[in-house]
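Morning, I've got a small favour to ask if you have a moment. Here's the protein in full, and shout if anything looks odd to you:
***
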Amino acid sequence: MPRWKVERVWDQQDVLIIGGGPSIESLDWSLLTKENTIGCNTAFIHGPEICKVCIFGDYRWWKKYENELAEYAKKGGTIFTNNQKLFNAKIPWLWTTSREARGLHSTSLGWNGNTGASAINLAILLGGKRVFLLGYDMHTINGRSNWHKRILDKNLVRPSVYSLFCKQFVHVKKDWKNKFPDVEIFNVTDDSGLSADIIPWMSLSEFWAGRA
């Protein structure tokens, strides 16, 4: 039953967050092997070589993937959650922390209605100096809501869900600027429903050129 205490294991380093959007469906995942990565939810299926850390917040998702997550942990993957039903769980490989409804925090993880926002908070607390968001599309592409086919809730395809997600990011921006002004965050995208006024965009070509 490990409770997480803040450790800046990636202090002043770049952190890449793997979101769920379909824009990264054709990504060459091997490009991420040398990166510090946090994967939202089902990104763990790529294994700890690609997805070093997995974060989730939904209890139904947990119940579906608990056994697979245990195998991921055995292979060296690290798993975090701020789901409060699991806060006192006696699971040695599951790191738990308290959940705040909104914003970014120093000793807990803000929820803001979605795992992607919690992942940003986690990246900052792990020491990230620059945080890059991959697959934060916040809209469907050709009717698809995710780069993978393991959809837990098909209702997520509804456009109204994404608008709700985006509204919550206002709280992320406020606390980012006020509490963590030295951290840089970029939404790596050529087309996102999350406004560049909230999280500045970086084009895909510019980002990958920089990694090279």
Notes: The first strand starts at residue 14 and ends at 18. The chain has a mean pLDDT of 93. Helices lie at 59-74, 115-125, 159-179, 204-211.
